[in-house]
């Protein structure tokens, strides 16, 4: 995804095994979909990495020095393309768990409602 007009994903590393069965989908992705993906995303540096005896994964390196790793073992080539597109579209920010269920710009002056506040009539 572009933040202020600049794509945030700088480099996509495609790691696979040329022998293992769990890399079957990513090998098919590299033969059929990867050239078109490279052509459609000229701002992105795509590197393939052969790691024998390991499960395949996609690693995205972002401009803010963060990285995301997605395991793609036993996935089809369409699913691998979907994960690569999601890595390209994400901003590379860390996922932060929310402390409350309700997020608002203007919190209530009286405080948030809980079940402890329920009065008995």
Can you describe what's shown?
It is a single chain. The protein is of the alpha+beta class and about 120 residues long. The protein contains three helices and six strands; from the N terminus they run E-E-E-H-H-E-E-E-H. Strands 4-3-5-6 form a four-stranded mixed β-sheet, with helices on one face. The longest helix is centred in the C-terminal third of the chain and has 13 residues, at about 75-90. It is elongated. The model has no long low-confidence stretch (mean pLDDT about 90).
Helix percent reads 10-25%
> How much strand?
15-25%
Please, what is the average pLDDT? 91
Secondary structure category: alpha+beta
Task: Describe the secondary structure blueprint for this structure.
Elements: E1 2-3, E2 6-7, E3 9-16, H1 24-32, H2 34-40, E4 45-50, E5 57-62, E6 67-71, H3 77-89
Parallel strand pairs: 3-4
Antiparallel strand pairs: 1-2, 3-5, 5-6
Helix pairs in contact: 1-3
């Amino acid at each position: 995804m572009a933040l202020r007009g600049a794509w945030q994903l700088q480099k996509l590393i495609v790691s696979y095994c040329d022998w293992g069965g769990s890399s079957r989908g990513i090998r098919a992705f590299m033969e059929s979909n990867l050239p078109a993906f490279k052509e459609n995303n000229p701002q992105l540096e795509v590197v393939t990495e052969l790691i024998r005896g390991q499960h395949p994964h996609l690693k995205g390196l972002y401009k803010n020095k963060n990285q995301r790793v997605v395991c793609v073992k036993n996935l089809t080539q369409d699913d691998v393309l979907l994960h690569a597109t999601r890595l390209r579209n994400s901003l590379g920010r860390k996922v932060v768990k929310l402390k409350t269920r309700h997020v608002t710009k203007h919190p209530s002056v009286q405080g948030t409602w809980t079940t402890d506040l329920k009065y008995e009539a």
